[in-house]
Inverse folding.
């Protein structure tokens, strides 16, 4: 009988090595956990289904919480619910949190959103965030939609010039007017045309990250919903209905640790302040 992947590591040893209590990474994870709990409550009140994504879902299944060396947290939900959630978060987020989306930050050109903690400071290694309004510890919120892979690839090419301009500019602020224009053109014209083609000319049962998001997956709606709650640190969080199937597709033996754990971090220049120090000032 196939019992599936098994754990072959000492969870306590990993925590002591990578994120012992009181360490900077532990503090970051605690702040992300706080953000998740607030978003979870809002989604529950408004009957919005979401689930942990990528490494966060892997952490829930393999570690019962964060991957010990992980410095980000991701969630997903269907694009229609994502758009509704954006409007709700603008109204209902607590005062110590901020929504980062193109409606709240003109320079934010990503096609997924972030919820930021206001009582911390963080910059990502990719450098795109230097021109954004908010710089606190965050959760990424990814919309998913039904779209064929080639159309998704095309959407990444049409928006990809924005990433290229940001990477190559000596001063990213000098090209922001071009980036904003390109992002508006994609949101207002290119992506609606591609969605029309996806729906009426090239329908597919498979969902991927929404157009313009440079990551990929390949799942059916029944792989996502209904979600199921599992232990996540000292609380619970929802994961995909077929989480193990998805993890195996993405990672192979997902219960096996990578060869060089903790070798890649997203954040740098991190400061975590006591709650209220910045948000109430």
């Amino acid at each position: 009988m196939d019992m599936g992947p098994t754990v072959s590591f000492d969870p306590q040893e990993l925590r002591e090595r990578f994120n012992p209590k009181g360490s900077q990474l532990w503090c970051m994870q605690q702040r992300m956990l706080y953000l998740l709990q607030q978003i979870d409550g809002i989604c529950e009140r408004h009957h919005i289904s979401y689930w942990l994504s990528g490494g966060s879902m892997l952490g829930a299944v393999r570690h019962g919480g964060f991957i010990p060396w992980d410095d980000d947290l991701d969630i997903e939900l269907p694009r229609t619910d994502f758009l509704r959630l954006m409007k709700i978060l603008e109204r209902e987020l607590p005062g110590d949190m901020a929504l980062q989306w193109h409606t709240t930050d003109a320079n934010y050109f990503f096609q997924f959103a972030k919820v930021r903690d206001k009582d911390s400071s963080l910059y990502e290694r990719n450098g795109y965030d230097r021109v954004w309004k908010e710089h606190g510890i965050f959760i990424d919120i990814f919309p998913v939609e039904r779209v064929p892979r080639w159309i998704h690839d095309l959407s990444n090419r049409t928006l990809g010039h924005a990433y290229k301009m940001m990477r190559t500019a000596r001063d990213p602020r000098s090209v922001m007017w071009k980036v904003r224009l390109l992002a508006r053109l994609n949101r207002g014209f290119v992506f609606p045309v591609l969605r029309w083609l996806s729906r009426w000319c090239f329908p597919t049962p498979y969902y991927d990250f929404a157009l313009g998001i440079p990551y990929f997956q390949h799942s059916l709606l029944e792989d996502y919903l209904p979600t199921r709650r599992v232990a996540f640190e000292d609380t619970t969080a929802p994961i995909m209905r077929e989480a193990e199937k998805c993890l195996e597709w993405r990672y192979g033996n997902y219960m096996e640790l990578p060869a060089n754990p903790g070798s890649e971090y997203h954040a740098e220049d991190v400061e975590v302040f006591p709650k209220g120090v910045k948000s109430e000032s």
The mean pLDDT is 94. Residues 176-200 form the longest helix (25 residues).
